[in-house]
Amino acid sequence: MALDTQGILAAVTIAMYIPFLFVSIRLVMKYGMSRGDGWVLLLVFSIIRVLGGALLVAAEDITPANISLYIGGYALESSGLSPLLLCTLGLLHSMFQTPDGFSRYNRQFRLLQILGMVALILTITGISNETSSSSSSSGNVMRRAGVILFCALYIILVGICVHVWTQVGFVMRYRKQLLKAISIALSIPGHSDALQASCPRSLGFVLDNRNHRAQH
Question: How far apart are the C-alpha atoms of 133 and 114, rounded to whole Å?
Fold first, then answer.
């Protein structure tokens, strides 16, 4: 069966994130697991996006429709956003590190990490529940709540980045280039696309659309 719009987007996602996958592998190998926590999360994000796209492409090709592949693909797309935002959060946290290695605002950043994990759990649980007719309504609510929390976390990250720029004189010299990279990453459409990807269409709509195409 030919790919629909969602399948084509999944195939494009695979092509886009494979280069990021190799770049993130090189960064993790360069900085190590202990010094490059943010880069490790970037690697996890790239792996998840590639796997999620592969599952959605496979779901479009297999007949009859395999709901488990759709659930896995959409769940990975949504969960992939969590390590991306947490990676950005970890890199921003390093901006507040003193020359002697002491990190400030540990409690505040820990709460933001918990926020990201709660959003992840709500989104994945909501996507899974949408396949059940008895709990599809609550699943949709949970998924939307997770997306709202992801959006809130993204807005907070932008606010932290702006705050760091107002205090850029206190940032260690070698971290200023990293701050510029974070600012560019937050401003380009990549994060907006990721936020949009965390809100997939309902599985019922996807399956109905597939059945309609199969009949024609």
Answer: 30
